[in-house]
Amino acid sequence: MALRKEEITRKLLHLFALAMPAGIFYLPKMDYSITIPVGILGSLLGGSVLLEWLRFRSELVQKFFYLFFGSMLRKEEKSSTTGSTYVIAASLLCAILFRNHLHIAFIALSLFILGDGIAAIVGLSMGKIKIGKKSLEGSVACFLLCMVLIYGVFPALPGVLDAWGSRVPFLLAVATSLSITVLELFPIKIGKKMVINDNLVVPILTGYVIIVLEKLL
Q1: Helix H segments across 13-58?
Q2: Which has the least CB within 10 A, 121, 189, 201, 210?
Q3: Predicted pLDDT of residue 2
Q4: How many CA atoms within 13 Å lie on the side-chain side of 2?
Q5: 70 φ, ψ to 5°?
Q6: Number of folded domains in the chain?
Q7: Domain range spanning residue 35?
Q8: 125-167, pLDDT tens digit by residue?
C-alpha cells in the first residue's frame, strides 16, 4: 500500500496527542491535583463519544465531520469508532490506573503515540515483509524510535526519569520498546471474534509491563 498524503497528515496529528501524556505528568507537578487532567480527559472523551454518536445519526453532523476529517479516516473507521477516541480513552485510563506512577503513564502513552505513528509511515512507504496487516520494517522502526526516545529524549525532560536515577535500565528499555512494538503489531482478541483496539489497550498493557519489571529489576 502506498503512503498517502492523508496518512502522513493523520500521523502528524499524533504530535498534538502528546499534550495528553504531558498534561497527565506535568499538571500535578504544577500543584494541580491529578483530578485536573482526569477531568479534562474525561470531558474530551465525552465530547468525542458524543461526536461519534452524532455522526452516525445526524446527516448534518456527518456532512461536516467528513468535510474536515473524511480524508484522514481509514476504511474501517467510516463505520466504527475512530482511533482518536480510543487514544483519548487510553489516556484517561492511564491517568487513573497509574495515578501513583505518572512517569509510567507518560512513558507508555508517549512511546505508543510516536511508535505507532512511525510504524505506519515506514510500513506504508517501504514495508515489504508483511506480518499480518503490518510490516517488519514498520515494527523495526517503532522499536528503534522507542529506544531513541528512552535514551535520547526522556533524559532531557524534567522529572520523567527521576524514579530511575535519570536513566532507564537497559533491560527495562528493551522490554518496554518490545512491548509497544509487539502489542502494536498483533491484534489483541477476546474470544474468536472480539478484537480490542490497539490504541486503547497497548499503552495500558505496556504500563503494567513497566510496573512489573520495575519490581523485578
Answers
A1: 14-17, 19-26, 35-55
A2: 189
A3: 54
A4: 3
A5: -55, -40
A6: 1
A7: 5-216
A8: 888 898 888 899 999 999 999 999 999 999 999 999 998 988 8
Task: Provide the sign of the torsion angle of the four alpha carbons 144, 159, 11, 95, taken in this order.
Answer: positive
Tens-place pLDDT, residues 107-134: 999 999 999 989 988 988 888 898 888 8
Taking the CA atoms of 141, 203, 169 and 19 in sequence, report the sign of the dihedral they define: positive
From 85, 89, 95, 87, select the one nearest 36 (Cα to Cα).
Answer: 95
The C-alpha atoms of residue 17 and residue 111 are separated, in whole angstroms, by 12
Beta strands in the chain (DSSP E): 130-131, 134-135, 188-190, 194-196
Quickly tell me which residue has 503494567 as its cell: 208
Q: Are 21 and 153 in contact (CB under 8 A)?
A: no
Length of the chain: 217
Look at the alpha carbons of 130, 79, 72, 15 in this order and tell me if their dihedral is positive or negative: negative
- Sign of torsion over alpha carbons 61, 64, 66, 69: negative
Amino acid 68: pLDDT:
78
Task: Write down the pTM of the prediction.
Answer: 0.90
